[in-house]
Write a structure and sequence with these properties.
Layout (H helix, E strand, L loop, with lengths): L10 H7 L15 H18 L3 E4 L14 E4 L8 H13 L6 E4 L2 H8 L2 H16 L3
Parallel strand pairs: 1-2, 1-3
């Protein structure tokens, strides 16, 4: 049986990975805002073209401008901020309602570190993202 591969919207990633197959999730962590824009812009264009649902987890909203005009489900920390554990719980509940096959975008981990206040909670954030990517509808 032939498996169809789809573009990630990022030609360099497609060249390395050969595209992705249905049900596969891809998590990219980009370390700086300039690099993030270089990754997010083509990925967002591709998601728009292919009608892929997009989700933005906005630790500090630094990438809002890269998503302007896009239909995006958005999570942001409340103001004033809650406790780090409450933020993780809120994020987990939000991601529970996200469709499989969505493009999930988020800010740099340093932005999350300021909110979550410990490496342990950063690890929990990555576990939440990983479980969300694995979830099947």
């Amino acid at each position: 049986m032939v498996t169809k591969h789809f573009s990630t919207g990022l030609p360099a990633v497609d060249a390395q990975a050969g595209g992705i197959t249905p049900g596969v999730s891809l998590l990219l962590i980009v370390s700086d805002h300039l690099g993030a824009e270089a990754v997010f812009s083509p990925a967002v264009r591709h998601a728009r073209t292919e009608a892929i649902p997009m989700v933005y987890l906005a630790a500090d909203a630094s990438l809002d401008h890269a998503l302007s005009g896009a239909k995006v489900a958005r999570w942001a920390p409340p103001s004033p901020p809650k406790s780090p554990d409450a933020l993780l719980g809120s994020l987990k509940r939000f991601l529970g309602g996200v469709r499989t096959g969505s493009l999930i975008l988020t800010d740099d981990l340093t932005s999350w570190a300021a909110l979550l206040k410990s490496e342990k909670r950063l690890g929990e954030l990555l576990e939440i993202l990983d479980r969300s990517a694995e979830r099947k509808d």
